[in-house]
Amino acid sequence: MSYKVIHPSTRVADLLGLLLVLKNEFGGKTDLFELEERLEVDLDDFMPIVYTANELGFVTIGVGDIIITDKGLEFLEANLKKRKQIIKESLERIEPFKTAKELGEFTVESLNKALLKKGIADFNSADGKHQLELLLNEWGVYSGFLETDHKYRVKS
Fold first, then answer.
1. pTM of this prediction?
2. Which of 46, 48, 54, 91 could form a disulfide with 7 if both were Cys (CB 3.0 to 4.6 A apart)?
3. What is the dihedral of CA 27, 33, 38, 44, to 10 degrees?
4. Could you tell me if residue 33 is inside a domain?
5. DSSP output for 116-150
6. If DSSP codes are grouped into helix, strand and coil, which group holds residue 27?
7. Angle formed by the axes of helices 43-55 and 12-26, to 10°?
8. pLDDT at 2 over 60
């Protein structure tokens, strides 16, 4: 099954760093290998950031190349409030946020069960549930897509 997902290890700061280096040091387009070397990160840490940037629509990935999109440039040039809004709008089509929106209100456990019903088992372990919670907070709460107290709620 194919679905779009934000990798649990990717942070908003990682995304910002990737886009800044891509734009400022490479003029918006470069070879993935060159970018990885410039950022001095391990490939296993680098590729989830690239895939997340791609899923959010901030970059496109070609045959070995990475290119910043107009949306990625808009994100870089925006103030903090606008950046959060851009992320919030982008999350609606990416798991686990797509399912979260369908539920409206949920716990980490109930969201994980709903994801499992869709065949998404990425978070089906103790560590996975912790990663899911981090993902909800890092991306969902940060962007204003979600609010939380004891449960999570999708903000309208």
1. 0.89
2. 48
3. 130
4. yes
5. HHTT--TT-SHHHHHHHHHHIIIIIIHHTSEEESS
6. coil
7. 90
8. no
DSSP sequence for 55-85: HTTSEEE-SSEEEE-HHHHHHHHS-HHHHHH
Per residue in 134-153, pLDDT tens? 999 999 999 999 999 889 99
Closest CA to 61 of 51, 70, 71: 51
Half-sphere exposure of 80 (CA within 13 A, CB side): 2
Amino acid code (one letter) for 95:
E
Instruction: Name 1's Cβ contacts closer than 8 Å, sequence gap at least 6.
Output: 118, 119, 120
Rama region for 64: left / alpha / beta (φ>0; ψ in -120 to 50; rest): left
β-partners of residue 147 are 153
Q: Which structural domain range is residue 27 located in?
A: 12-75
Q: Is residue 70 part of a domain?
A: yes
Q: Which of 48, 75, 102 is the last residue of a domain?
A: 75
Residue 40 structure tokens: 């001095």
Distance between CA 42 and CA 123 in Å, rounded?
23
